[in-house]
Amino acid sequence: MKNPNSTIRLTMAQALVKFLSNQFIQQDDGRVEPLFAGVFAIFGHGNVAGIGEALYQVRDTLPTLRAHNEQGMAHAAIAFTKANDRRRLMACTTSVGPGATNMVTAAALAHANRLPVLLLPGDHFANRKPDPVLQQIEDFGNPNTAASDCFIPVSRYFDRINRPEQLIHSLPVAIQTLLDPINCGPVTLALPQDVQAEAYDYPQSFFAPTTHRPRRQPADAAEIFDALKLLSHAKKPLLIAGGGVLYSQCAAQLADFAARYGMPVAETQAGKGSLHWQHPCAVGGIGVTGSAAANQLAQEADLIIAVGSRLQDFTTQSRTGFAGKPLLQINVAAFDAHKHQALPLVGDARTVLKQLDDALQAGNWPESSPIDANWLSHAKQLNQQWQQKYEALTQPPLSGLPSDAQVLGAIKRQSQPSDVVVCAAGGLPGELHKLWRAEGPGSYHLEYGFSCMGYEIAGGLGVKLAAPAREVFVVVGDGSYLMLNSELASSVMLGQKIIVVLLDNRGFGCINRLQQGCGGAPFNNLWRDCEGSAPDIDFALHARALGALSEKVANVAELEQAISRARAADRSYLIEIKTDPAVSTDNGSWWDVAIPAVSSRDEVQQAFARYQSQQQQQPY
Ligand SMILES: Cc1ncc(C[n+]2csc(CCOP(=O)(O)OP(=O)(O)O)c2C)c(N)n1
Ligand SMILES: [Mg+2]
């Protein structure tokens, strides 16, 4: 028999990676997989000698992947997790100082999106002997202050491992946080470089292989009872599918529930793809970037049932989309379930839907349901009108530069059901949410909690790592591309092919439109409105310089041909197309952007007057 008290002498870094290698996850279908698929690493001082050496020892079981930018690699790790419905993870290790702080934006992104990722920034010496080390920030009054403190407000759990034995307490909390459906998000363990290399006699039992299972929390019986009371009066309920539907892996259950009870389903950016776009209950995206159909239904509905949504301002049209209506919120996090004065139904989406379904059937639904028999057919009609608009908006232009919508139409015509589209910021997310015909869960990957420019290409790499058999289409604006494109080189290096369609409208098109919508003069967004002379950037050439294949196309017909060449290619492929910065799809929605109360510009004064009247529609 093994001695329960036996120990193994390891450095802190070795113990850390040994522990991570021994964490497994059991998926709902019974498959057991390593919880961590790998570790993205950019070495420097503060991680190369400690955790770098430890990762080398375990490279066969816990692969290390080299990236080019710390923010980018963390985006890739986060996208990997999102594409795995939060059921598989990656870790990221950086050097001390700028390597660490480069990753802070990605931590904030993961925090806003509720996506788990393990961040392991290096840190200055705990023993302080060589202080100040290169890249140490040096607080005059507090030697404990470190650059890695920047992670504290954007981590769900933060610890600095100042002694090797702290791992025994901290790592289980880290894993528990990463896997908690309510609290999950970025976990940061700051690792002082001397402690990484320090030895300790760890108990062998600490490294026992451990299999985790995603927790499915049921709702409280009293909350189900209250929800039923609300439902028993609802003639026109509208379901809103949020990201929680996908993370709970209950899209099929939701579609079935909606179909049996005759409820239309609108989708948030994070929830889009829950229903196939042709599902009889699907009415498209909701909110500022939603379809006119879903937004009209939200106005007409007498009950909104949000499932797994944070109900951020884009979804609620800054609280005007369905203001004052009864709202039922099914959410695993009480924090979300109580928002907007909703009736909360706290629990895992799949479990709660089943509880509701059972309770409704016990009450003899759907026969005795109060839902208006014409409600769903009315929703279908509105959706059909929107689909007709889609056809008109996505046809190739007769002349001139194509719009974003026309480019997306071309990509869609050339796409296959197994393809994944990836995007995050600029004008494209709005067009995608309104117009992209999602083919079901996993086909639509939008980072719109933080809408972070520079997520797109790195995110595409993470999605490809998660779904190697699928073709990954990254659609990206020139602005986002220029902000962070270096993981295109990583995708080539790692043999993880992505297809990038770059829409060059010569600047920050969506912000230029927003600026003018707010009464502002075109200023500092499109290159032609900036100081200096507009650069003539050859994006295709740039992508080639990073090792990808690429081409430039002159119109959408050429784009469609280029997509088949990109599909056939053996490595990442960028297609550059010039687009019209002025055009976007209007859906009549409103978004609260504060307008200056004082301005010498007539346009701003008019915008302010409009703003004041629109604010009247906000309930509080
Ligand atoms: C990191 C980051 N910085 C700034 C912004 C604000 N922002 C949102 S979209 C945008 C412009 C995006 O330009 P581009 O990628 O070319 O897309 P376009 O608007 O032209 O469609 C800016 C500056 C952001 N979302 N993320
Ligand atoms: Mg642009």
Could you characterize the architecture of this molecule?
Helix 1 packs across helix 2 (51-57) and helix 11 (292-300) packs antiparallel against helix 15. It contains 24 helices and 23 strands. Helix content is 37%, strand content 18%. The strands form five sheets. It has a six-stranded parallel beta sheet with strand order 5-4-6-7-9-8, sandwiched between helices. A six-stranded parallel beta sheet has the order 14-13-12-15-16-17, sandwiched between helices. It is globular and about 70 Å long. The protein starts with 6 loop residues before the first strand and ends in a 5-residue tail after the last helix. The chain is of the alpha/beta class and 620 residues long. Strand 4 (36-41), helix 2 (51-57) and strand 5 (64-66) form a beta-alpha-beta unit. It binds thiamine diphosphate and magnesium ion.
